[in-house]
């Protein structure tokens, strides 16, 4: 297909039927995502806070240069973090009969937990709870419209998860509008309470990850897991970007490191399939959401989880 200017463009992908899994929302219009994620006010101002009954009290976070983010070399010099002993997979997952992984946007589950998923894929039931389709990541792009991004990112998510051993049948799509999770936080919590079991392990975005959708998902997961009585761990995605590595010890009291050296090549291959995010696509004018300096944070031999 050619545009009015004679430039070859790929055909529009066929529309598919909705595959939402019983999650009912009030009708709300999609909102354009700000190019700069919403950071916790305490992080911007350096205020210490107590959160959720003291679960992370005394927290103090320093804010780095957001335009470039914290350099991976600075993170590698964070001896406080990397000198901690690795947690065995059996200890990390405990006696969980099922792993329920909340992914705010398609690909978050592979970036934050791809190594863990590969390690457990053969012997543990896994459900990926895909909250949004990430359709608002390139606001204003003429070719990569929200509708086109929605389908492309779903397809990428399926491919990436297949690479780490998780089939498409394990994905539960909730179809919340990208950028609107905070408006549906209570509904998400109710849904999780009705879905989780006491013997589950819930993996959720860090409650202070620096993006409104991630933080809303983390808060809902925290309350739901506490209500049901299941184990819960959080994983950072954008926290690696904006947080000063020198302040990690103030934000993360007891991080747990999982050694994924044996499966790191598999994870890297899965991450490479997130083409709309890495920029390995045609007709994208904006900088990709995951340029090389950001991807470096997800190429490590360890994954970090927060209790």
Estimated helix fraction? 25-40%
Would you state the CATH class? Alpha Beta
Q: What's the main sheet like?
A: 5 strands, parallel
CATH superfamily: LmbE-like
**CATH level-two architecture:** 3-Layer(aba) Sandwich
CATH fold field value = Rossmann fold
Integer-rounded radius of gyration: 19 Å
Portion in beta strands: 5-15%
Supply the helix-strand structural class. Answer: alpha/beta
Task: Tell me the distance between the termini.
Answer: 51 Å
Give the strand order of the largest sheet, numbering strands 1, 2, ... along the chain.
3-2-1-4-5
The geometry reads as globular
Q: Total number of helical segments?
A: 13
InterPro entries: GlcNAc_PI_deacetylase-related, LmbE-like_dom_sf
EC number: 3.5.1.89
Organism: Knufia peltigerae
Enzyme class: hydrolase
Give a description of the structure.
The protein is an alpha/beta fold and 307 residues long. The chain has one domain: Rossmann fold (3-Layer(aba) Sandwich). The protein is built from 13 helices and seven strands. A five-stranded parallel sheet has the order 3-2-1-4-5, with helices on both faces. Strand 4, helix 8 (212-228) and strand 5 (231-235) form a beta-alpha-beta unit. Helix 7 packs parallel to helix 8. The longest helix is centred in the middle third of the chain and has 18 residues, at 146-163. It is globular. The N and C termini lie far apart (51 Å). Mean pLDDT is 85; it is low at 1-8, 13-19 and 26-64.
Q: What secondary-structure arrangement, pairings included, does this model have?
A:
Layout (H helix, E strand, L loop, with lengths): L40 H5 L26 H5 L2 H4 L6 H5 L4 E6 L4 H13 L4 E8 L13 H18 L7 E6 L8 H11 L4 E6 L6 H17 L2 E5 L3 H4 L5 H4 L3 E5 L4 H9 L2 H4 L13 H4 L6 E5 L1
Helix pairs in contact: 5-6, 5-11, 6-11, 7-8
């Amino acid at each position: 297909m050619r545009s009015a200017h004679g430039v070859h463009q790929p055909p529009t992908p066929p529309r598919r039927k909705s595959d939402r899994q019983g999650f009912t929302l009030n009708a709300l219009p999609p909102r354009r995502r700000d190019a700069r994620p919403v950071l916790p006010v305490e992080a911007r101002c350096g205020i210490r806070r107590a959160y959720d009954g003291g679960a992370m009290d005394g927290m103090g976070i320093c804010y780095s240069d957001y335009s470039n983010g914290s350099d991976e070399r600075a993170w590698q010099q964070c001896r406080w973090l990397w000198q901690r002993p690795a947690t065995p997979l059996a200890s990390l997952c405990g006696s969980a009969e099922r792993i329920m992984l909340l992914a705010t946007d398609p690909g978050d589950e592979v970036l934050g937990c791809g190594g863990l998923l590969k390690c457990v894929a053969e012997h543990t039931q896994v459900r990926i709870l895909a909250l949004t389709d990430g359709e608002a990541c390139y606001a204003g792009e003429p070719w990569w419209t929200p509708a086109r991004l929605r389908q492309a990112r779903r397809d990428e998510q399926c491919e990436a998860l297949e690479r780490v051993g998780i089939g498409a049948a394990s994905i539960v799509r909730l179809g919340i509008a990208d950028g609107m999770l905070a408006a549906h936080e209570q509904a998400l919590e109710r849904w999780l309470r009705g879905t989780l079991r006491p013997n589950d392990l819930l993996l959720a975005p860090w409650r202070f990850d620096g993006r409104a959708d991630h933080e809303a998902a983390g808060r809902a997961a925290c309350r739901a897991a506490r209500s049901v009585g299941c184990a819960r761990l959080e994983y950072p995605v954008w926290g690696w970007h904006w947080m000063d590595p020198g302040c990690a010890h103030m934000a993360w009291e007891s991080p747990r490191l999982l050694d994924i050296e044996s499966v790191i090549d598999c994870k890297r291959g899965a991450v490479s399939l997130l083409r709309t995010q890495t920029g390995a696509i045609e007709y994208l004018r904006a900088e990709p959401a995951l340029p090389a300096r950001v991807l470096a944070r997800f190429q490590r031999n360890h994954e970090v989880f927060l209790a």
